[in-house]
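call fold(seq) -> tokens
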Amino acid sequence: MRGLMIGAAAAALLAGGAAQAKVIAVAPGGDAQEHIQTALLDAKPGDVVQLAAGRYELADGLSLDVAGVTVKGAGPEATILSFTGQKGSGEGLLITSNKVTVRDFAVENPRGDGIKSKGVDQISFVNVRVEWTGGPKASNGAYGVYPVSSTNVLIDKVTVKGASDAGIYVGQSKNIVLKNSTAQFNVAGIEIENSMNADVHDNLSTHNAGGILVFDLPGLPQMGGHSTRVFNNRVAANDTPNFAPKGNIVAQVPTGTGVMIMANRDVHVFGNEIADNATAAVMLVAYTSDYADLSYDPLPRDISVHDNKIGRNGFDPQFAGGAILANAMGGSLPPVVWDGVTNFTRKGQTAPEVVHVRLTDGPVANLHFAAPGAVMTARPEMKPTIDDGAIAEPAPVVLPKGQANL
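ret:
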């Protein structure tokens, strides 16, 4: 009997907690900045901050650090958070709490990044738009949707236009699903950087400088990116001149790049439609700048590119020596271009790297660089395929049940 009483009390307490969850309604107006930020501060776990349709003119960034909150608008063309008059240079919306969903609204013209999460678990971006409405400019914010150092990341039905680095950027994160989204007129459309276990599928990346990038960089808190599947995407007509500020690593991405893999491991590119990218459909390259971290591996390895539908690409490569190389290969670059570094001994090691690739969407250009970036050592070779044998595909990413059902 006593156990039943305790159980009933616990159920009542839980029911009471659920009943306390509420909708906090916010409408546009002259005091929208204060009303939205107050709602984000006052929200409790389970609450919904409901942004009514309309245009919100904001002079400063917003922040959320309460777990379990949903921030919801009336749709990305109906509810618009405009940061055109933003005085600072920070994010439009910064999220530092777990189990947060942002959905159904737009962020326009933030001075810094659009919507950023940092150091959180279970972050979901659903049906949001981030856009710099003046078109591609180096002065635009770097990233549109930007989860960093986060776990269990869902990006679904997101649109980003005009980012001066990457439109949809996932950095130093784990367990990622990025799907049904569109990236246009950014430097990089979609970028997975220093991250682990990512599924990138059913997206459109077009009219960027580069379509989809999978990178691993040195000197960051999380390194050793691996296990990314890039599949069933359309990567087409990435033709916007690279407008990244000078000095950014992404400024080195040639305009007209479809998919680029750099210094990452266990990346599988399959089932995509890749066409009308002037430089190349798929490029595999090593990281070429100097670095101090002895644990860093600058080579792409265990890379599989297969069963993609590849149209016309490589007809006007936009990198130094690209035209000469294309002419030597019959007038255009083949579908897959690999720098071919395999006999390189990285810092702190005594034996050359072991590099396996399975590149069956040929022909493939193996440039046979002697070391990362050693262009003058190139010995270009065209092969129908380069197949070192099957490379086990990573398991599909599984998100927590609540996220998967959004």
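The longest helix spans residues 2-20.
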